[in-house]
Amino acid sequence: MPGYFQLAPRPIVPEDAAGANQLLIQRLGVTPYLDRAVEILTLAERGDDPEHRAYVVARDRTVAGLALFGAIAGTDAGFKLHALVVELPREGDVGERLLAAVANTVASSGGRFMIAELAEEPALATTIALLKDQGFAEAGRIPDYYRDGVPLTILRRDL
What we know:
The chain is an alpha+beta fold. The chain has one domain (10-158): 3-Layer(aba) Sandwich (Aminopeptidase), CATH 3.40.630.30. It is 30% helix and 35% strand. The protein is built from four helices and seven strands; from the N terminus they run E-H-H-E-E-E-H-E-H-E-E. The protein has a seven-stranded mixed beta sheet, sandwiched between helices. Strand 2 and strand 3 form a beta hairpin. The longest helix has 15 residues, at 94-108. The radius of gyration is 15 Å and the shape is globular. The model has no long low-confidence stretch (mean pLDDT 91).
């Protein structure tokens, strides 16, 4: 239904928890990355941890997009995008709006850059493509990091 998820991204609230978990499972599936994303989401739901925050695009307890991010401990102005998942094919700009909201929040918090460290896996290909389309550039790559043939790609966006 057009326009259903045109609401602005916002910090997660308790009513979003089940939908956010469902979206993580749907987009990450049975991959080694699901458990850590759920762990970060659980920490973010508490709302008092600058290293673990969550923004959603949601309506009526249905979550169409989720961004997990936070400050990088030990840095003055570094932030990490832990995960970004978007339900497809709904509302093509959900990911872009989520990233813009996260970038604005990071900049308002004194952040100067964001880092995303992702495995080059089919489950994460859409996220990697979206990040590159939205100004993230490859800052590094470690071959065979996760296992043979699966590198770690480090993406960075200066704010």
